[in-house]
Structure formats: C-alpha cells, structure tokens
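Q: What does the assembled structure look like for these inputs?
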Amino acid sequence: MSATQPTQQTDIFGKPVDEQHKDNYLTHQRGLMSWLFTLDHKRIGIMYMIAVLSFFFVGGVFAIVLRVMLTMPIADASNQMRFEMNDTRNIVESSGATVPEEAIKLLYEPGVTDAEAQQQKIEVVLTDAASSAGAGAKVVEYPELINARDAAAQKYTQDLTNHNTFYNQSFTLHGAVMVFLFIIPAIPAIIGNFVLPLMLGAKDVAFPRLNLASWYCYMGGALFFLWVLGKGILNFLVPTLEGVWGGGGLDTGWTFYTPYSTETNTAVVAATAGAFVLGFSSILTAVNFIASIHMLRPKGMTWFRMPLMLWALYATAVIQILATPVLAITLLLLIAERAFGIGIFDPALGGDPILYQHFFWFYSHPAVYIMILPAMGIVSEVISVFSRKHIFGYAFIACSSMAIAILGFLVWGHHMFTSGQSELLNAVFSIITMLVAIPSAIKVFNWLTTMYNGSIRLDSPMLYALGFIWLFTIGGLTGIYCATLAVNIHIHDTYFIVAHFHYVMVGSTLFAFLAGMHYWWPKMFGKNYSERWARWGWLLVFVGFNITFFIQFIMGALGMPRRYATYIDKYTIYHHISTGGSLILTVGLFLVLFVWIHSLLKGKQSPANPWGANSLEWHTISPPPHANFDHAPPATDPYDYSHWRWRPEIAGYVLNEDSEPEEKDAMARNDS
Amino acid sequence: MISILAQAQTKGISLPEGASTYAGQVDWLWNYLTYVSVFFTVVIAGLMVLFILRFPRKHPDDQPHGHTHNTALEVTWTIIPLIIVMSIFLWGFRGFLDMATPPANSYEVLVTAYKWGWNFTYPNGATSEQLHVPADRPIKVVLESKDVIHSFYVPAFRIKKDVVPGRYNETWFEVDATRNGITLDAPEKEYDLFCAEYCGLNHSRMVSKVVVHTPDSFTSWLEAASDQGAGLTPVEYGAKLYKSKTCAQCHSLNGSKLIGPTFKDAYGYPIELKDGSSPIIDDNFIRQAIVQPNSHGVKGYQPVMPAIPLSDQEVTALVTFIKAQSDKYQPEGGGEEAESGDEAKAEPEQ
Amino acid sequence: MNKVDDNHDPHLAHHFDTPVQQYSSAKIGMWVFLATEILMFGGLFCAYAVYRGTHPDVFLYAHHFLDTNLGAINTVVLLASSLTMAWGVRAAQLGQKPILVIMLLLTLLGGVGFMGIKTIEYSSKYSHGLWFGSDNAFYVKSGKYTNPEELTGAIEYGESHAMPHEDKGELTDEHLELQVKDAATEDVLDNQAAGEAQDQSLPASAQSNIGNATNAPAGLSSKFAEVEGDGSAYVTSEKKPLTYEDLDPQQQKLVSQFFQIYFLMTGLHGIHVLVGMALIFWLFIRALRGTFGPKYFVPVDLVGLYWHIVDLIWIFLFPLLYLIH
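A:
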C-alpha cells in the first residue's frame, strides 16, 4: 500500500487509541492455558484456524503424493511389458550371464499362440549367441530365462500391489481429511466463529462454552484420523504390527461405500468414529450460530438488514443441524455392521448396500452446500465492499441461500443415477438438481450487477472473489452436465466428476476462504500483509488450480474412471499436465502461507477499517478488544459505504465524528 | 486467457468416438450443454473483465450510485435459466429412458464382476474374460457381483451401470456395424471396458475389452469359446486360467508372499490354519479353497479371496495346475517328477 | 447437556443484555439440539420403514419374540415420569422446592424402572440366543447360523403358531410372554396353565411338546422339528399366524434384521434415557441445595424438554416394534 504505514492503533474515527484502551483479545490474557480454556469466540476461531490449516496441510500432502504417483511409470499400465523385460534382463545379468536382446523380444512377443515354436526360436537365438560370445561370456539357458521371466512377472505384481495400496490409501485419506477436517469446518468454524458475533455487534456467540466444546470435539475427531494415519504408517514400517492391532490406514474412499468398507482390512471403524465425533463439532457450531443470529441481533438489525454473510452462515447452520445427525446414525450403522456384522447393508443377510448410499448422500450432498454457502456469503461481502457499491438484489441473494439450503436436501439421489434405482426416482432427482442451478445463477448475476457502475479496487480479497466467480461458473455449469441424466451416465464416476467437484468444493470454497482470510486478516491480527506478494500468491493458486483440474474435465469426458491407481496409456498426457498444475498450486499456497507468516512477524499495524466496509465488525479497533464492543454500535445498512472517508495517513477509512453522533455516543460509552 | 480456456472448452472437452446406437443422442445433448456453458462462461467472464476495466476505483472516496435492486431483472434471470435447464432436463430424461429400456429381442449376456475381473457368460454356457458381442443387434447385459459393488462402463457406448451384490441390474447397447467400420474385412473391433466403482486394491486393473464382431465372426468365436480347454492338458489349461482368472494377482508361483499364499510347494505340505490345525494340502483342500474361498482360514492371510465363477472342468484344471507347482506332485508314480515340473513351467503365453 | 451448563450461573452471562434474552437463547438452542436428536433417530426409523415396507411378513413374524406386556408397562412408566418432570418444571418456576425435589426423585425412579424392565427384556433375549449382531439364532450368514429348531426361546414360536383367531391375538401374546418368563424361571405351574390355555388350538404334534417345553430344550427342538414337518398344512390358511417356514428364503434371511433394528433403536434410546437420568440426578442435587427458583429454572426446563423428547421417541418405538399386526 502506498500510504505511509502507521505504527499506532487507531479507532474508527482515526484517533490513536490511548494506552489504557490498548487491550485486545490477543493480549488480554497470556499463556497456553488462557487459550485452551478460552471462551472468547475470536480465540476459538484462531484455534480452529491453526488446527484446520494443519489438516489442510496433511490433506494437501496426500494430494501431492497421489498426483505424483499418477505420473510414475508404473501408473501407466502399458508399461508393464517394458518393466518385465527390464527385470528379466536384470535378473539374468545379476546371475552373471548375458541374454541377447532378440531373445527377450521373442519372449515377450505379443499374441503368440504356439508355445513350442516360440521356445524353439528362442533356443536358436540363445545357441547362436552362445557360440558367437566365445568362452569367457556365459549366455543364459532357456529354462533359466523362463525362470527369470516368471520372477520378473512376480516382481511386477508385487510392485503393482504396493503402488495400488499406497495410491488407494492416499486418495482416501486425501478425501476424508479434506472433506471432514478442512472444507466443512474451514469457513464456518474459522471465519464464522471470528466474525459472526462481531457482525452482530455482540460480545460473543450465544453459548461460548459449547463453542469451546466444539473445538475439542474437532480435535477429538482429528485424533481418530491421526490414529488411522499413524497406524497405517507404523504397519508399513513394522509389518508384524498388523497382526497385533489390525490394519491401519484407510482405503475405502471417503464415502465408505458398503460392502467394501465392511470387508476391507483397514481402520474403517476408527475413521468413521472420527467422522462421528467431528459431526458433534459441526452440530455444536451450528446450534450456536442459529441461537446467536436469532437472539443476539442488535436493535435495528432486522432479518433483512443482516450482512449476507450472516444469511449464508444461518443457511449453513440449518443444513448442519438437519443433515449431520443422519450422517451420525449412518456411521453408527456402519460401525455396527463392521464390528457386529448386523448385516443391515449386507446382501447375504437380506440387507441392501444401496440403502447405505441413500443414508450417506442424504448427509453428504447437503454437506456440499455446507461448504459452498458460507463461501458465497464471503463473496457477497467482498464484491460489494471492493466495488464500494451497495450489493445488488440483497433479498434475492439472501433468499437464494435459503433456497439452496432447502433444495440441497432433495437432490441426494443424483449420486446414484447408475446404481439401478428406478427411472422415476432418477427423473425426480434430476429435475430438482436442475432447480439448484437457479438460485446459484441468481447469485452470480447479482454479484456481476453489483460490480456494474461500481468503483472497483483489485486488492487480493477481490481477486480471490473474482476467481471464485470464474471457478464457480465453470463448476456450476458442469454441474448441469452431471445433473442431465443421459449425459451423467457417461461421466458418472469419471474424472469429469472429480474436476467438477474440485471446481465447486476446492476452487470455489478454497478461493472464498482465502478471500475471507485476506479480507478479515487485518481485523483478526491487526496487521497488514504484503499486498504485492498476496497478489502473486493469488496468481499462482489461480493458474495452478485451473491447469490441475480443467484438464481433468477433458480426461473424464474421454472416459478415464476416477480412483484409478493405474490407467491405460491414452490418458497419460492428461495426468502429467494435471500433476504439473498441482505443483504450481502447491507453490502458490505456500506463498500465501509465507505472506501470512510474514505479516504476523513484520506486518504494520492496520487501521480499524482498511477497506471502507460498513458491517459492524469494522466498527471496532483492529484487533478487536476482548469484549468486542461494550455497547453495540448502531446497526445501519451494512452495504451503505457513504459515511466512510479515506484517511491516507493511516491507510484506512474513518467516520466523521460530527456527522455520526450515535456512533460517537457508542464509542464514548465504550470508553467510560 | 479467457479466450484460451473458452476455446479449450469447445474443442478440448469432447467425448470419445461414440459407437452405440444411442451415443449420437447423448453427444448431441453434450454439445448443446457445451454451447450453453461456453455462452454463459463467456458472458460472465466477459462482463467481469469489462467491469474491472470500465469501472476502476479512481478515488478512495468514490461514491458510485446505482440501483440496489430491480425486480424485473431478477425475474428475467430467474426465468431464462429455468427454461434452459428444464429443456436440458427433458432432453436428458428422454435420452435416459431410451438407454434404460432394453428392446425385447435383445441378445442376453450375463456379466459377473468380482475382485478384480470380469466374467461373461453367453446363452449357450460359454464364458470369456472379454465381452464378445455381435454388431447390429441389441445386447442386454445382466449384471451380477460376487462381492462388492462394481460398475460396468464402456466409454465408447456411453453406458454405465453399477454391479451391486444381492441384486441384478441390467442395461443394453447396440453397435451399428457399418458406421463403426465393422466389415467382412475387419470383422472385429475392440472397445475399452472399465470398472467405474471403486472396489479395492486392483480396481484400476479391472479393465477389459468389448469385442464387437460381425454376426458370422461372432458365431465362429462363440463356437470356439464353448470349448476352451480343447487340445490342452489339464496343467496347460490350468496355467491359462491362472492368468486369465486373475489368480496371478494374489498367488505367486515362486514362493513369494503376495496377498494370498504361494502355489509353489503348497500341495503335499502342511499348512497352518487360524484354528491351530495344520492339515496337509490335498486335492480336496485345493478344490474347497477355490470353490468356497476363505473357508479354511489360513493363518497370516486376510480372508479376501473372491468366489471366482468357474466351471467344473476349469476347477479341475486349476487344481491340477496348482498341484503341479509342488515337488510332491508325482502324476505317474514318482519317476516323472522332472517332466511334470517342465510341464508346469509351460506357462501361459502373454 | 452442555447447553444447560452454560446457564449454571444464576446471574446473567456477560454477553446477554437481559435474562429474557438469555432464557430464550437457551430455549432455541435446546430446540435446535432436539431437532438433531429427532433426525438421528429418523435415520433408524427410515431403516425400519424400508425393511418393514419391503418385507412386512418378516416383522410380523419376528415381533412375536418381543414381550408386549413389558413394553406396555415401560410405556406407562415413561409417560408417568414425563408427567412428574413437567410438574417439577412448574414447581421450579413457582419456587416450590419440596415439590421440585420429590418430582425429580420420582422422575429419576421412573427412569430406573424403565431401564430395569429393559434389562429384564434384554437378558431374556440374550438367554434365548436372540442377541445383537451375529449372536442371533436367525443370523443366516455362513458358519454362524443356528437352526431356529435349536432356539431355546422357541416356545414363543409355538405359541404364535397356535394363534387361532384375530380376536385372541392379545390374549395369546400374553401367554406367549408368560411362557418366556416360565422358560427363564422354570416355574412349572404357570407353564401348565399356559399349556392348558392352548390345548384347543394347538396341533397335536405341538401340544405333545408343550408340557416338557420349559424343562428340556431338547423337547423344544423336537417339537420344532415336528411343526416343521407339518408346516405345509398351514400355508393356505388365511387366519393362520406366520411360521418360519411360511417365509421365503429371502425373508428368512431378514428375520435377524428385525432384532438388529430392535436392539439399535431401543439401545440408542436406552443410552438417551441414561443420559437423561444423569442430568436429572444432577438437577436433583442442585434442587436439594435450593439453587432453583422463579428467577432461575432454565436447567430444569431444558432437561425437561430433553426428557419429553426421549419419552416421545419411545411412544413411537413401542407400537412400531411391539404392536405389529
């Protein structure tokens, strides 16, 4: 930023904060215990941030592992013969003999039907080679050559088994960690916890103790996943351990589809128990948000004067309340199935594996909206603030969030179009899925219209928000492909789906999450970050993401099934491009992390309102004091920016004291 | 950049060459979807860029004025997408119904999926590991699973159906011979067949082929397929089955431990079971291990062997082949040991 | 239950403006939490509906192994405890400490009674080999399946088999349960009475075995075998009760599902009752200390809501599991 950076904390009128009011939530109390037992929603938000980002790192490591594994030569199934030929040669040579190249070629000639003729031909080649080689060199004999070929085949099988095991575990843990430990809690638990009470002008959420309990539930659930992971690693290092404490790791896919999940030897019970406990975390956060939004809105903030972020969080909380318990009971049934063999999903006992899919997707499809709705809330805030223009179509955006939340419950069956459910059901689920496109489209058009005639500033939060619109447009439109019955049959369970949901879940949600983090960062820590490097980070993440996943649409359309550890050679080039993109994406994310850490260590003090936003969290100093506000600031239209004026010396926006008597009054009371 | 990506969307995302009779319909719909998507992507991204360029912030205190809502506009962009997606739905549903309803005169093939392979059974009882079908005739595939959920997927036919244990799913396709160049000169054409539902370790190797024949070529293939073991000794036939029935994925011949026990020197030796006993492996032991997998409970191995569909003749051949991997195998009284060893080594051709 | 914790401080929490706001927040929070409870059980009710909807005969057959009388008594016990709980809430609001203490104690006793009866039912199921998971006589998966002939609880089967008319259904159920208890207590006299009551309706082959049924499981088996032999004779009769042989093989597989669902639903409900009892005990201690009064009764109110929802779930469980016709 161009203006000279201030070193002093300033309030919303641009006045320096005096010594006795310098208290903020970060310095209010000190020591580890003051964090672990805090009831302050801001501190809990920060604790969530550390925990969730750690698991984002873990999930990311698995992502890179699996992308890199897919570029290894063994992943290309057409390399099998080359591998075996090389190994045959190596085995022969390690025994001190040589083998002529021609013999190996004959040995691996495809389409041979007459074994005896082949043997004769090879023996001729071997005899010729032996006679021409002279006395010193030993040429391999035919039986040894066959033995070497068999050994090479076994070695390939062994290598392939290892490769597949690693790959299957990697993609499963990548999915499970990212979904349950990162994407679902990311925006509600980190950003939502931090800003929701501030946006309400409240001192805390309705149930601070429950809020802390939800963090501990999260950590408890995370411990289960670490247990699964640790067991997998130890079993790999010390194979005999598997006999002692059973299988580790997880190879079911994050969906835990029965009957595979009931018969695999990996730690399914621990993982599902973890997801079960994480469900409590999710529910407790949601209970808090609903009660807070209902009861803690300040005077003057009617439902239709709430910031859209609150609408989004409210809709999210409703989904969490209604869907998570169903996941809980599903996972309990799965655990009972595995531990006691109750057979409710087991066809041998009259059970139905498809029933599991119904249960599972009844939660997990709405869970997609748990991920995307708060993201849309962030984008609504950011687009409006950085266009310095009132959000367009407020009521339509707010209602579309609720519409998505409700419709989201009625579309789970589109995950089962190929499972053999009746044509009528498929049609119903298809048509309702189509309807979800409408509120999504409404939001996108409203954001665009907000930008029209605005005063657009391309800071990093806005760049991420615009990136969101691009990615969400592609993710949403490809969603229509997936909802279209005849087309879905072809692309179901292919990389097209993988690309689609990464565009929606990762692209959109991650971008909105990063937009929100950059947008509220000055408020959270009271520090500015390097805008220049933040923009470079954005560019790398944006480019890397599009390369990684756009290519997967093409690959999927060509029929590449998902969850394949190996593939036939016509898909090789696409996998290589995708992996290249994922490496760029990784570098970009590390750059973002670097920008944040740099800001914490070296960042300059940020003003109370660096962006000129008007929702209530900007009506307090940065970082906020322990109690947020002693007296709630007056709740006005959150999208009316006309009262805020730029003050270059503090690089932020301030209110005019004289024109805002109410605000001044509230501040004065806060001081007293 | 946007134009490049837009171009990638029009040209890059295309389906593989369609071979089934209804592929054309799916592809038309696909193209329609792509046009609609590209149109909206270009409009949205274009407006985004246009607004960024046209309305930059000139002064930090800019007070842009504009409407905060316009109901007519909102209704417009609610109704138009609604009409578009409903048209897509109707088109997609009609196509889906065609794909879901096998014609009455279909040729029926039973598809058995297991971990990790396919087995196809034809009306005359013949079986194969690749799906062979005649062109110009609707083929109904009835899908059954021996263990977990699999999915029958042929990209070129635009066809996919889950194979669910405990129930029979079915689907169908028909390949037009002339349009796909299946003629008397080139009587066979191969298409990739995948398992599309994750089913464990070797899910990605559960790949096979669909071979479409001219009617004559199919008839002669079927005759040959009905008698696969002809002209082979049981050990030779067993060696062939060892590869084709995917035994090799889990059982080695050289003594190394894979997912299952090795076949080398198994017959005639004792084996430790989970119940503590150590019976000597004989013919019946091997037979039971194949026909009722996991019923013995061998110590140190997970009970993960699938029940692979086999005829009696095939089981006998496999039992003989497994016996032949042991030095205790003395088919003709002991003197012929070396010879039998050689025979066992006469392994399947690639 | 944590929600209750939040308000243990009689004074207003710092982030609320008024006690009314605080009270309403707690109420909303509790209702939202109860919604999650309903949805969690909703999953099991769905599983129940799917299997009963597709195989009504299986449920009709298998429910004869449940003790309707004990279920009915439990319903009454739980309903009564709901009444005392509601009374307790009222007493807390009016500041009537002695009544509150008594009501909480009575509610707690209701919970104890409910769990006690549930324990009797469960142990009877266990002793008859009708337990959860694979330890169930109807569990047909390879290696674990016990032929129903070997069921020690098979008397109930003979009894249900003997049900001659619809209007005698209730009566027969009672006898059926009588005999379960007989089997457990080896009370010969009662058993004879039950045996006599059946004399008119049972086929001769079954009758001959009733006498020694309670004393000798072997007798049960033989009786079962004979009934099996006669099974075909009953297939066409409209009013006849279902027998195991009437079920087709697919349905026979599913009989154990009834028990799995029964144990899952009542087990999960039982856990909720235990949690409720712990909460009520906690209220009881605090009520003894005189914590609650007209100005502070939120915990009593919230636990009351929870107790009612647990009660309500049982009101659905009882007819769905015990009273199938």
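Chain B has three domains: 2-51+73-100, 107-225, 234-345.
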